[in-house]
Amino acid sequence: FSFSKIWIYLSKLFVRRKDLTSARKLLGRAIGVCGKEKIFVEYIALELALGEVDRCRSLYNNYLKAMPYNCKAWLKYAELESSVGEAERCRAIFELAVSQQTLDMPELLWKGYIDFEMEEGEGNKARELYQRLLEKTGHVKVWISFAQFEGSEIGKGAAEARSIFEKAYGRLRDEKDERVLLLDAWRVFEKAKGDAASVQKVESKMPRRVKRKRMRTDENGTELGWEEYFDYHFPDDQDASASNLKILEMAAKWKKQQAAMDEDDSDDDSDDE
């Protein structure tokens, strides 16, 4: 039989009878037969309750050999090492985890790693992790979290947090919804850490929300009718558009002047002949 619940119920029966040897043999056999996640979790929970940390480590190693993509398993393994005061082992596990090519919930793993370093008081290590994560993903939530980290007691302070908000705002210029989320978080930060001038600076960047209509279509391009949606008009974008228009106008004027000068030169050459 391969149903994990049956294996687990039977192992619990052995535990109630205080027959740990049989319980272990059964769970080991269950892993060999079906290798379900629930069985690994149950077996580790048993050994943890018995205080058998080395047995837990061995089980986690087998667990992760079978499921190297499983972020919850990596996180639990790291938490085990942290709970017994093995900070370096914990870091080594996190490093091995984030190096995996395929992960089912990488954001959970990176958050766990960063939280661990912050709990250890390792601000520089946490900062390095944020920087590494931003090389992999430019998600707005990572930028916000990084800025909030710098604005916390373990970070470099409000000035550094603002610098990150500014950098994120520039990087997310083409992503309207993400820019709104960023500005909302930035405004909350300034209200808590800044002054009236810094709050106003962020307020001046806030967009105007405009209701629009667009045609909905299905996978084949068939029109399904009109729907309403909200678009955002950012003051910065309007200023940039006006600046670009001015540049184009200046370029057109310069081109016209050049053409006129070339025409005058041609007339002079004709007179000389």
Automatic annotation (TrEMBL):
Signal peptide: none annotated. GO terms for cellular component: post-mRNA release spliceosomal complex; precatalytic spliceosome; Prp19 complex; U2-type catalytic step 2 spliceosome. Coiled coil: none annotated. It is found in: Nucleus. GO terms for biological process: spliceosomal complex assembly. Keywords: mRNA processing, mRNA splicing, Nucleus, Repeat, Spliceosome. The keyword Isomerase does not apply. InterPro entries: HAT, HAT_Syf1_CNRKL1_C, Syf1-like, TPR-like_helical_dom_sf. The keyword DNA-binding does not apply. Residues 38-130 form the Pre-mRNA-splicing factor Syf1/CRNKL1-like C-terminal HAT-repeats domain. It comes from the Eukaryota. Pfam families: HAT_Syf1_CNRKL1_C. Belongs to the crooked-neck family. Involved in pre-mRNA splicing and cell cycle progression. Required for the spliceosome assembly and initiation of the DNA replication. This is Pre-mRNA-splicing factor Syf1/CRNKL1-like C-terminal HAT-repeats domain-containing protein.
